[in-house]
Design a protein that fits this description.
Distance between the termini: 104 Å
Structural class: alpha/beta
CATH topology of the largest domain: Nucleotidyltransferase, domain 5
Radius of gyration: 33 Å
Number of helices: 17
Number of strands: 7
Number of domains: 4
Largest sheet: 5 strands, mixed
Helix content: 40-55%
Strand order of the largest sheet: 5-4-3-6-7
CATH architecture of the largest domain: 2-Layer Sandwich
CATH superfamily of the largest domain: Ribonuclease H-like superfamily/Ribonuclease H
Strand content: 15-25%
Length: 417
């Protein structure tokens, strides 16, 4: 079989003596090329110039130029070709694994919000001979799409106790213009108390048609049962929920309501009104919450009637949570879980600024939410779904709370009106 070309080796040594060349790089190139030749001879069964048809499995068919990035720099090699079957080599197989590792790192950098230009600079520092254009980085990240599509279309066959819905707006370049488009996100709390990101999609506007289309996809994936939906009162979303989940109770986010009502009074009065509103939601039960609300209505009836009107007309839709286990109240009366995701998405997306297209937005947010979803599924439970014994303790606790609700401390000024 093939031997190391002694003449070629001596030429490299002589050249190193005669000029200030990169001896180690040239030597590595020579050795790897010799190894490629040796692998080819082994695969076709005969050495170069040897004529033995009984041993021959194939015939030489020239070379293809290949480069190999190493710690010594980029090497220019010639990959042998075999006419009858593909030539295989461990050299480039190992290289491809190393390359895939680097590509995975690039993908992760993009997911983490590192801009394309910064990715190019980082790669350049890692390897001065390796260069990635914007289109190359985009192609690399595009390899994530099959994984994302599988995650976004996964079947939803289990029952969810609570469903939370909201949207975030991001800037996207379309037809030469930069526009804001809503990204619809839905998360659920499963029967075991774990949170799960159930869906993400992009719309042109946050209206009833868009939300209905989003929910329809969820139904097609198997979302059929839940105990409660939680969201803000955006008209299009509420209409879609009433039509698609007509028999499912809905909880309006109290945070948005607590922000909206004080906007109806002068700035000097807002702090006091906000304090009164908090007493509604910190009440031990719905009966006491309605009692506190009536006191606030009476207090503002003549001075700021819009406050009283809002409480009379809209308060009830924020009190649905009182019908569910007491231990769950603080976690099901707001959309804080999606608000947290929205803040994280916005923080990361600041690095990107304007997304080049809608597909890049879905790719970016999906990758981010997939990581969060994995942490949620393997981490601590978000809500304890109590056993029958624990439910009995819950009932005893509520009975005790009912007996002591008269001791609930109302604001003295509110009571004394």
């Amino acid at each position: 079989m093939a031997q190391i070309d002694d003449k070629g080796f001596k030429e490299i040594l002589q050249e190193a003596i005669e000029r200030d060349g990169d001896f180690m790089k040239d030597l590595l190139s020579f050795m790897l090329q010799q190894l490629l030749e040796h692998e080819r001879d082994n695969q076709i069964g005969v050495d170069k110039y040897e004529r033995d048809d009984k041993q021959r499995e194939g015939s030489r068919n020239g070379y293809k130029e290949r480069t190999l990035n190493t710690i010594l720099g980029k090497l220019d090699l010639k990959k042998p070709q075999i006419k009858e079957f593909p030539f295989k080599t461990m050299i480039f197989d190992n290289y491809q694994r190393s390359e895939r590792t680097l590509l995975s790192a690039i993908q992760q950098m993009v997911i983490d919000g590192v801009s394309t230009n910064k990715v190019k600079k980082i790669v350049k520092k890692l390897d001065k001979d390796m260069s990635f254009s914007k289109s190359t980085v985009s192609r690399i990240t595009g390899e994530l799409d099959p994984i994302i599509d599988k995650w976004r279309n996964k079947e939803l066959r289990e029952h969810y106790a609570y469903i939370i819905l909201d949207a975030i707006y991001l800037h996207i370049r379309e037809n030469g213009e930069v526009i804001k488009r809503p990204i619809l996100i839905l998360i659920g709390v499963d029967k075991n108390g774990h949170r799960k990101v159930l869906s993400i999609s992009i719309g042109y506007q946050e209206d009833e048609i868009t939300w209905k289309a989003h929910i329809k996809v969820l139904k097609d994936r198997g979302l059929i049962s839940m105990d409660l939906t939680i969201s803000d009162v955006k008209k299009g979303l509420i209409n879609a929920l009433e039509e698609e989940f007509s028999r499912i109770p809905h909880q309006r986010c109290i945070v948005h309501f607590e922000r909206n009502v004080p906007s109806k009074v002068p700035a000097k009065e807002r702090k006091k009104l906000s304090k009164y509103l908090k007493q509604i939601y910190n009440a031990p039960d719905k009966e006491m919450a309605l009692t506190v609300a009536q006191l606030i209505i009476n207090r503002y009836r003549n001075t700021y009637p819009k406050v009283s009107d809002s409480l009379r007309e809209k308060l009830e839709e924020t009190l649905t949570f009182f019908s569910y286990p007491f231990k769950h109240h603080r976690k099901i009366r707001t959309t804080n879980q999606i608000e947290y995701l929205n803040k994280l998405i916005k923080k990361r997306s600041k690095v990107i600024g304007v997304f080049p297209n809608a597909k890049s937005v879905i790719r970016y947010i999906s990758c981010l939410l997939m990581e969060i979803d994995e942490d949620w599924q393997t981490g601590r439970k978000y809500i304890r779904m109590d056993s029958l014994e624990e439910n009995k303790l819950e009932e005893e606790f509520m009975e005790k709370l009912q007996r002591t609700k008269d001791e609930y401390k109302l604001d003295k000024e509110l009571v004394a009106q």
